[in-house]
Automatic annotation (TrEMBL):
Principal location class: membrane
Protein name: ABC3 transporter permease C-terminal domain-containing protein
Gene Ontology molecular function terms on file: transmembrane transporter activity
Any Gene Ontology CC annotation: plasma membrane
Keyword terms of this UniProt record: Cell membrane, Membrane, Transmembrane, Transmembrane helix
Organism of origin: Sphaerisporangium melleum
Length: 923
């Protein structure tokens, strides 16, 4: 039996080489491609290990703060913490810290928004006219949203004189009692002309509701209008216009020690000192640290005009305020200066005052918290394609009232005051909170240091959570129109307290300051449950391995059991761009389509899980294609020797002996293919850089032998099971009733149906190839679609695609070879029939078209079935079948037909060169 098998291999070298080539390609492809799949999986895990962990592992929130959008889409909006004002008690924080496995638990309490004022002196000495007096008009516009929003202030008038100014009033508004020394010992009242607020109460809380305003400035003594907060700011010999800008400041409380351990905040200080509960402030003020910059997009554009000289003379002439205001409102003059003042300058002045307040016999300066606001979350409408639209809201004007100011100036307190940006479109519900207690003793605040968020220790950009305690939010253009309007820049927060984008907390206090604010705050839950969230880092977490995940899960379960609070496991979360259709603003900004970095919770988990499934599918498809090719090659070798096997059966060889001979032959070919495959795999791995170890390469030997033996089982059984007389007949099906096929197409269909097993084998090979390509497109689209362009998802898809498509290309190559082998064997087995057709008048071209048609039908059968199977698998894996995947399935099916036609080219050429005389004489 062994000698016969060896003899058959020598005398049938061509067919043996075909089987050897098939097994070599199969074994090499299996070894290299599975090595590629494993390399790919390790890269996926490595990427997730490097980027999966954020600043903290668990986020503890008050019960019931999960949004509908979060529940339905697993998405959390960036900076959503600014909308959570309390809900967790300090007792709950203590219980969490006592649990096993807690490395650090850092609380944040979002107290609310307060406002602060900054001032900038704009030099205008060079703008004064030739005489002693000049009256300037300042037209000021707030510019935000990258220049798209423009909110005009009421005009401001500046009276400048080279003569000294004096103030005679012991109290009250000093501008009303200001006089100018027009000659030695001779004073003329100018305040009666310039003090305009008394003409009418403000119509609303915004700066433009207060109407035009006037000020006075002297280059002789620099006293200006003499208001207490401006004394000493001017210098003799210079004239200035004082500009004021009001900032909304989000105040939050932290535990300084925990924050230093979790985020390294103490290392980001650039001035002053860090928060330290052991250090008292000079007068018991609430200690604050402030962000060094405002991180806001708000500028003031100023256009300064010089009014006619007669306007300034009317001031010194004592024209009553109402008449002067009416007069100058209608006056124009040449523009003498245009200037833009950035928010940074106002913010720096505000911090300087808060950090180093003036304290002298003439003036005691302090900063007190008399009121603040809490802002609710933005509500959204979500469309079917995943886009979201924030819903505008309208707040009651009473929310801007200032009870503290009303006690001093009733008409101003009733109207209230608000930053000018808050006049724009609003998206958040505001609630006013007022402070009780003594303004100076209980509510005074002092900035003890400044921190720069950019100096915080960095965390991976691929897996950063919304660290809004320090990072300012931003949105980027979402389409070409928005990109053109924004000039490629991102949108940033401004001074709209209820705006869509909110600034990160610019002021931080410690838990002692939080308790002081809570004690005197009127309304809200600061006194009972002041903490908004608690960020927890778990001990012993090293990566997304099972042990680390279990440690985090156990701590999360313990937190829920101990506190009853909502818990999010943030391990593996990643920023995900969400398309936001932002409605138009009220002051020029059109509706914009933007993309905002939200957070997809648990992306790393999903990617790891889908990556494992994708690797499993790749293994199965590689084995399927390799197995089908080997089965087809082994079947072809056995079918080619059916006559010889039939003779042996006639000579008395038993079925068992025939069965063993065929398996021995295929086993030897498999052994040779495995040995060659091991060497080729090592060479390919060193050339391509793939990690294929020697033990893995040697696994090709038993794999090839087993594959060859399995592939030869059915052909060997069929060759040994049929009667001897049947073994010398072609393996075709004889129909019960003969039909006369019409044309080449009908004859091609009839030829394929006569050998259904062989036809299905070739079609099944293409089916696997087409379904592999379709599933690959589905998985790739599933990663991008289900992870919504997540940075983790984008990086992994890019890394995986070359190996996946290389594997698919090898599968298609094997499928094409399998189809070519099927058709070649069909031609050899039907050579007598084909020669008869040629002898009866068929042209060579018609015979070639017959073979090409058979190949096209095999390709069509495998392509359609493979496309359907691939679409079904994609739907099961990715949860949907997008149009792009359907188009890919159609393309894969078309590729199968094309490859089948190309594979049938060689058999078609062979059929045209059949030796008619020899075949007909033999038949």
């Amino acid at each position: 039996m062994i000698r016969l098998a060896a003899s058959r291999l020598r005398h049938r070298a061509g067919r043996a080489l075909v089987l050897l080539l098939g097994l070599l390609v199969a074994a090499t492809g299996f070894t290299v491609l599975t090595g590629t799949a494993e390399t790919q999986r390790l890269e996926l895990v490595g990427t997730v290990k490097q980027n999966y962990r954020a600043q903290y592992d668990i986020l503890v929130r008050p019960k019931g703060t999960t949004t509908d959008l979060e529940r339905s889409a697993n998405l959390v909006r960036a900076n959503y913490l600014s909308g959570i004002h309390g809900g967790i008690t300090e007792a709950q924080l203590d219980r969490i810290r006592k649990l096993d496995g807690i490395e650090v638990a850092a609380p944040i309490a979002m107290i609310g928004y307060m406002t602060g004022n900054g001032y900038v002196d704009l030099p205008v000495t060079d703008l004064m006219g030739a005489g002693d007096r000049t009256l300037l008009r300042v037209d000021r516009t707030r510019v935000a949203d990258r220049g798209l929003t423009r909110i005009p202030y009421a005009p401001q008038y500046a009276y400048l004189t080279r003569r000294p100014l004096a103030h005679s009033a012991a109290g009250g508004a000093q501008l009303e009692h200001t006089s100018e020394e027009v000659a030695p010992g001779e004073h003329v009242a100018v305040g009666t002309s310039l003090y305009w607020p008394r003409l009418a109460p403000p119509s609303g809380p915004f700066p433009f509701d207060h109407g035009p305003a006037a000020s006075a400035w002297s280059t002789a003594n620099g006293r200006g209008d003499g208001l207490p907060d401006k004394i000493g700011r001017g210098r003799p010999g210079e004239a200035s216009i004082m500009l004021e800008q009001e900032f909304p400041l989000l105040l939050a409380a932290i535990d300084p020690a925990a924050e230093a351990e979790l985020a390294g905040l103490d290392t980001a200080m650039v001035d002053g000192r860090y928060l330290d509960p052991a250090q008292d402030t000079p007068r018991g003020e609430i200690p604050l640290i402030a962000a060094a910059r405002p991180y806001a997009d708000q500028q003031d554009e100023l256009v300064i005009s010089r009014l006619p000289a007669q306007a300034a003379r009317k001031v010194v002439a004592g024209l009553p305020a109402k008449a002067l205001r009416s007069y100058v409102t209608g006056q124009t003059g040449p523009v003498v200066k245009r200037v833009t003042v950035e928010a940074d300058r106002f913010y720096a002045d505000m911090l300087r005052t808060w950090q180093h307040p003036v304290s002298s016999a003439a003036m005691q300066q302090y900063v007190a918290m008399t009121r603040y606001w809490t802002a609710g979350p933005v509500m959204y409408r979500r469309s079917a394609d995943g886009r979201v639209t924030p819903v505008p809201v309208t707040n009651d004007p009473k929310v801007w009232q200032d009870p503290f100011l009303a006690a001093v100036v009733p008409e101003l307190g009733k109207a209230g005051s608000a930053p000018i940006g808050s006049a724009d479109t609003q998206f958040r519900r505001l609630e006013l909170r007022t402070m009780g207690g003594d303004v100076v003793r209980d509510n005074a605040m002092l900035v003890v240091g400044r921190f720069d968020p950019e100096r915080l220790p960095g965390f991976s950009a691929l897996s950063s959570l919304p660290m809004e305690t320090y990072n300012p939010p931003s949105v980027v253009p979402g389409d070409d129109r928005a990109n053109a309007l924004l000039k490629g820049r991102s949108l940033l927060p401004d001074d709209n307290l209820a705006g869509y984008l909110q600034p990160s907390p610019l002021l931080l206090t410690d838990l002692g300051g939080l308790r002081k604010v809570a004690r005197f705050s009127q309304g809200g839950q600061l006194a009972k449950a002041p903490l908004s969230v608690i960020r927890v880092r778990v001990k012993g977490v090293t990566g997304p391995d099972a042990v680390s995940r279990e440690r985090i899960s156990q701590v999360a379960r313990d937190i829920v059991a101990a506190t009853g609070l909502d818990v999010d496991i943030t391990l593996g979360s990643s920023p995900t761009p969400v398309t936001v259709d932002l409605p138009a603003g009220s002051y020029g900004r059109p509706a914009l389509t933007v993309k905002e970095g939200w957070v997809n919770k648990g992306v790393a988990y999903r990617i790891l899980y889908e990556a494992d499934r994708k690797s499993l599918i790749l293994f199965v498809l590689i084995l399927a294609v390799c197995g089908l090719f080997a089965v087809n090659a082994a079947s072809a070798a056995v079918r080619a020797d059916r006559a010889q096997l039939g003779v042996l059966a006639c000579l008395g060889w038993s079925r068992r002996k025939l069965f063993g001979t065929v398996l021995t032959e295929t086993g030897v070919i498999g052994l040779l293919a495995g040995l060659l495959s091991a060497g080729v795999a090592v060479l390919l791995s060193s050339w391509s850089g793939l990690q294929v170890s020697m033990p893995r390469a040697l696994l090709a030997v038993p794999a090839a032998v087993v594959l060859a033996l399995l592939a030869g089982l059915v052909p060997a059984w069929r060759a040994s099971a049929v009667p001897p007389i049947e073994a010398v007949r072609p393996a075709v099906r004889v129909t019960r009733r003969a039909r006369s096929p019409r044309g080449v197409t009908g004859l091609a269909v009839a030829g394929l149906t006569r050998v259904p097993g062989r036809t299905l084998l070739g079609a099944t090979t293409l089916l696997v190839c087409v379904s592999a390509l379709t599933v690959l497109l589905g998985v790739t689209y599933g990663f991008r679609g289900r992870v919504v362009g997540s940075l983790l998802g984008d990086a992994i898809v890019v890394q995986a695609r070359p190996a996946d498509y290389a594997a698919t290309a090898v599968m298609f190559a094997l499928g094409a070879l399998a189809v070519a082998d099927v058709l070649y064997l069909s031609v050899r087995e039907r050579d007598t029939e084909l020669a008869a057709l040629r002898a009866t008048g068929w042209r060579s071209r018609s015979l070639a078209r017959l073979v090409l048609s058979e190949g096209a039908f095999i390709g069509l059968l495998g392509g359609v079935a493979g496309a359907c199977a691939g679409l079904a698998a994609t739907a099961a894996l990715a949860g949907s079948v997008p149009p792009a995947v359907i188009a890919g399935a159609l393309g894969a099916g078309a590729l199968a037909v094309l490859l089948a036609v190309l594979a049938s080219a060689l058999p078609a050429m062979l059929v045209q060169r059949l030796p008619l005389a020899a075949i007909l004489a033999q038949g």
